[in-house]
Amino acid sequence: MSLELLVPVDNEATLSLSMLPKQVLGKNIDIHTEGSGLPELKGIQIALIGLSEQRNSFFTNSHYDLIQFRKALYELYPGNWNLKIADLGDLPNGAKVEDTYFAVKEIGYHLKQMNIIPIFIGGSHDLIFPLYQVFQEFKQLVNMVSVDRSFDFSQEDELISGRSYMSKIIMDKPNVLNNYTNLGYQSYYCAIEEKDLMDKLYFDGIRLGQLLDDVKLSEPVFRDADIVGFDMKCLSWEALADPLKGMPNGIDSRTVCAMSRYAGISDRVSFLGLYELVSTPMMEKLLAQMIWYFIEGVQYRFGEYPVNTKDEFLKYTVALSDQTMVFFKSEKSQRWWMELTNDSHLDNKTKTKALLACTEKDYESATKDKIPERWYNAVRRLH
Questions:
Q1: How far apart are CA 253 and CA 61, in angstroms?
Q2: pLDDT value for 349
Q3: What confidence tens digit (pLDDT) does each residue in 1-24 have?
Q4: What whole-number distance in Å separates Cα of residue 379 and Cα of residue 72?
């Protein structure tokens, strides 16, 4: 089993724990150390796993040291949580990159079987590919969300890498990708051909400017996601407090923490990856806080997936000029969904319905005879 490949957390990361108050996170989670060994997984709900695989990274082959990140995380105080959390240590690089992929897939598969949410920290963004393969093994359709400045499709290079892993996912068989959404893309980092492919496949994207204007636009996207990956090159230099490492434009620290909480509160998200880490003192603290917010979100999940509109949901029917749309609002969470109907023109008996997470603004747009773009793309994918 690939879990046996995990190596203990470096002693340096736990040395200062003895000097910290008993309430801190580091003293209230199970940590894989040389002395204690791998924690018992039964009852664990969230597991941290460090990655260092960078050989297919498009931008850098530098090694990110997770010790300082762990120190920053361990000294935080937990919220009012009743979750059992474990730090399972780090996965060493395989002899080949494909060996690392296989190990990540095996670990992801095993933890998903146990209903444990793994948080993968470090490595390059292509390590999201083996998480996609887990859903192939389960024969489940999957929604992927990437917080990234670019779409990560390759136009010429077939190598799986931080720039081309999405091409590999689209071509891989069996294809279980239902939807891919990019949050925070910047047009000058995206080729026209990539944008055309996004449109052709009816995938969704929210530009950086839209996201910064209203981070709540990301909440329904995360609510429908199974796999979430953050490419940390998406951050602005202000977020990293280092103009030499960050980007002129990018996601700020408050926004990325809010997005992490939305990912956690989603009842569907079962994998989280934080990739392409940048070596700055601020990154360790920001990573720790992002994970804190994700855990906080998991704690306060509403248990509304799969959605059962027969319980505590209000139904709204909107008559547009050319069709009728149905919306549902949860009385528990105050969140909104819109109904998708797939009517087969070949067989009138074939009619399937699905629900797509949305915002109240989508409902308000429908009342003004405007069809939300996410609804349009989702309906096209159903056909």
A1: 25
A2: 44
A3: 689 999 999 999 999 999 999 999
A4: 44
How does pLDDT run across 334-362, given as a tens digit for each residue?
A: 999 999 986 544 444 445 679 999 999 99
Q: Please check whether residue 307 lies inside any domain of the structure.
A: no
Which residues in the chain belong to E strands, given as ranges?
A: 30-31, 46-51, 85-91, 117-122, 142-147, 177-185, 204-207, 227-231, 271-275, 313-319, 324-330, 336-343, 351-358
How many whole angstroms separate alpha carbon 131 and alpha carbon 121? Answer: 13
Q: Give the chain's domain count.
A: 2
pLDDT tops 50 at residue 224 = yes
294 with 317, same domain: the answer is no
Whether 358 and 284 map to the same domain: the answer is no
- The range of the structural domain enclosing residue 207 comes to 2-299
Same-domain pairing of 79 and 21: yes
Say yes or no: 222 and 295 in one domain: yes
Residues 6+ apart with CB under 8 A from 349: none
CB 142 within 8 A of CB 177: yes
Only one residue has tokens 């997770």, namely 66
> What is the C-alpha to C-alpha distance for residues 322 and 339, in angstroms, rounded to an integer?
16
